[in-house]
Amino acid sequence: MRYSLPYKTKQFFFVLIKLSIVVGAFYFIYNKLANNEELEFSVFVDFISKNDVFSLKTVLFLLFLSICNWFFEILKWQTLINPIKKIRFKNSFEQSLGALTASLFTPNRIGEYGAKAIYFKPIYRKKVMIINLLGNILQMSCTVLLGVFGLWFFISTYNPEINYYKFAKFLTIVLIAFALLGFGLTKSKFTVKGFSLEKIKAFIIGYPKNTLILGFVFSIIRYAIFSFQFYFLLSLFQVDMPYINAMIVITSMYLIASVIPSIFIFDVVIKGSVAVYLFSFMHTNELTILSIITIMWLLNFVLPSVFGSYYVLNFNVPKTTVEA
């Protein structure tokens, strides 16, 4: 005999889950700012105040860059999802920011997959998760493509001490692990919520290539915006560095920070450590770099997640979801 919870009880638990997500996200933000071992919040505020680099004009410009960054992320999601379900920009805005808030404290932002999928009817959800993966792969492709060139120029220019033997051993282990994983998946009946590997492969092969190209273009534009935002902050803190030299370090930083295994909770710490090391070759003050990393995080993750919390709290699972 199956027992079904009363409707009001289900609604109560649903509201409780939404509140837990928002409270969890805000606690994560608070904890990250208050208990950051690399940069104490009081030191950060004091450093910003003493430098006095933020006028109303510069703050508005930084906010404009963050808005542009998320505008193209939202536009990318709308573009990628349209082949299976056409949605308005407003829907894409809600899904992108709501999913950011819901996934802020999950490992590698894994919660984003389920958060975006729940906006759609059950028949679409498996495909939505695959499309979300494609979107992340496109963004990662930009990071790797530009980062490889940046890192090559960085090593050629600054000759950092690298243990090539350990690096080659690590790379070999990673390649073998991926090869074994790929072989295992092809030989097993691997499924994602009943979606077999063959069906996933067929879906990706049949996915519109023009849409993927457009998604990649939006990913490149996003990368150009937030990397320029980093450079602009360097110039605000009076770091005298040519744009090309700065981009060599910035692209290297994003590449290294992306490939280091981590959970999203420690993403800011990893970026900070990598950035401090790389910019030390440019004789840049450590506190300046850590402050810039914190500001970038506040502008591009914390601020959007605050708006996203509104959509999380107001989210409902209607009978018919996401109508165009």
Characterization of the model:
With 324 residues, the protein is mainly alpha-helical. It has one domain (7-313). The chain is built from 12 helices and 2 strands. A hairpin with a 2-residue loop joins β1 and β2. α3 crosses α6 (122-158), α4 (89-103) packs across α12 (286-313) and α9 packs across α12. The mean pLDDT is 81. It is found in: Cell membrane. This is Lysylphosphatidylglycerol synthase domain-containing protein. The chain crosses the membrane at residues 12-30, 54-72, 130-155, 167-186, 207-231, 243-266, 287-313. Keywords: Cell membrane, Membrane, Transmembrane, Transmembrane helix.
Observed structural traits:
324 residues, mainly alpha
SS element count, helices: 12
Strand order of the main beta sheet, please? Answer: 1-2
Instruction: Provide mean pLDDT, rounded.
Output: 81
Distance between the termini: 40 Å
| Residue share in β-strands | under 5%
Helix content: over 70%
Radius of gyration: 22 Å
Number of domains: 1
Low-confidence stretches: none
Strand count, sense and barrel status of the largest sheet are: 2 strands, antiparallel
Structural class by SSE content: mainly alpha
Element-level helix/strand string: HHHHHHHEEHHHHH
Subcellular location: Cell membrane
Keywords: Cell membrane, Membrane, Transmembrane, Transmembrane helix
Protein name: Lysylphosphatidylglycerol synthase domain-containing protein
Organism: Flaviramulus multivorans
